[in-house]
Amino acid sequence: MDTQKQKEQNSSKPTVVLVHGAVEDSSLWTHGVIQGLQRGGFPVKVFSNPLRGLFVDVAYLQSLLDTIEGPVILVSHAYGGAVITQAGDDPKVKALIYAGSPMPGVGESTNDCLERFPGGDFASSVDLIAYTLPDGITGTNVLVKADKYGYLLAADVPQDLLALMIATQRPIAAAALSDVLTSAAWTSKPSWQIRPLLDPVIPQEEFKFEADRAHSTVIELNSSHAIPITYPDVVVDVIEQAARAVTK
């Protein structure tokens, strides 16, 4: 395909913005998701989530959305689901895709989605680490215990990659998980839920509850929490499905 045709193809497609979750970084999407989207001609933006607080994170995501012309599809993993739910009211956003992500409602936090139903093991698998900023403000970071990481987040990820994920995990401020949403874009925009059936983070009852109330299209996978790594092709397929649905 010549350059002009490639540009025309890309301009007809929504920009896909990828939003990672807690204890991870943008490299989450480099195991096939970005590559698949680029092969499909999608403009891609990868958001480096600060993980400092829901409204801080949303503000930074909004600043990225402000640089994009045309329609946007927001794609999240894990805690990123709360961020895209709050930020998704931007009129550019045409669809929301949740890959192993919570879908909080107004007045709810990420923690509410982890605790509404029994069965989630996140709270028992993390360490809480206090920090102090130069101005004296204190807070608490959350990291997953090394000996729990594989079980909790990546049971089907190869051992060499798992070791890298453990070593490079980024702390999330505990406050980000307890911040309460003031808007929920899935109430007015189409959503897709990619549901990992082998995920000990979010109870299956919670996934079903959230998808039912949002009237989401559901795709079930025999995957751990690490869907963008274990099933990148499915993530790309769902994005393509969403793009077709919102550009008819």
Strand order of the largest sheet: 2-1-3-4-8-9
> Mean pLDDT, nearest integer?
95
CATH top level class name:
Alpha Beta
Q: What's the CATH topology label? A: Rossmann fold
Radius of gyration: 17 Å
CATH architecture: 3-Layer(aba) Sandwich
Q: What would you call the structural class?
A: alpha/beta
Which percent bin holds the helix content? Answer: 25-40%
Low-confidence stretches: 1-8
Strand percentage: 15-25%
Shape: globular
Instruction: State the end-to-end CA separation.
Output: 24 Å
* Biggest sheet character: 6 strands, parallel
What is the domain tally? 1
Q: What is the number of strand segments?
A: 9
Provide the CATH superfamily: Alpha/Beta hydrolase fold, catalytic domain
The SSE string, one letter per element, is: HEHEHEHEHEEHHEHEHEHH
Number of helices: 11
Structure summarized in a few sentences:
InterPro entries: AB_hydrolase_1, AB_hydrolase_fold, Sec-Metab_Biosynth_Hydrolase. The chain is of the alpha/beta class and 248 residues long. The protein has helices spanning 3-11, 33-39, 54-65, 80-87, 110-115, 146-153, 159-167, 174-178, 204-214, 227-230, 232-246, and strands spanning 15-19, 44-47, 72-77, 93-99, 126-132, 138-144, 172-173, 191-196, 217-221.
Sequence-ordered SSE layout with sheet pairings:
Elements: H1 3-11, E1 15-19, H2 33-39, E2 44-47, H3 54-65, E3 72-77, H4 80-87, E4 93-99, H5 110-115, E5 126-132, E6 138-144, H6 146-153, H7 159-167, E7 172-173, H8 174-178, E8 191-196, H9 204-214, E9 217-221, H10 227-230, H11 232-246
Parallel strand pairs: 1-2, 1-3, 3-4, 4-8, 8-9
Antiparallel strand pairs: 5-6, 6-7
